[in-house]
Amino acid sequence: MNSRALVVPRTEGETTRRRLREVGLLRTDLRVRNEGERLAFPLTEVGTVPAAWGEVSEREFRPVAAAGPREYRQLLDWPDAQRSALPRSFDVVGDVVLIRLPAELEPRRRDVGAALLRFVPGARVVGLDRGVKGTERRRDLERIAGDGGWTTRHRENGIELDVDLERAYFSPRLAHEHERVAAEVLRGETVADLCCGVGPFALAIARDGRASRVTAIDANPAAIELLRRTLSRVRFAARVEARAVALEEFLPAAPPCDRAILNLPLEGIKYLPSVAATVRPSGRVHYYELVPRSARERRGSEIVRSLGRAGSWELVEHHVVHPYSPRSDLVAFTLGRGPE
Ligand SMILES: C[S@@+](CC[C@H](N)C(=O)[O-])C[C@H]1O[C@@H](n2cnc3c(N)ncnc32)[C@H](O)[C@@H]1O
Question: What's the domain range around 213?
Answer without folding.
Answer: 169-337
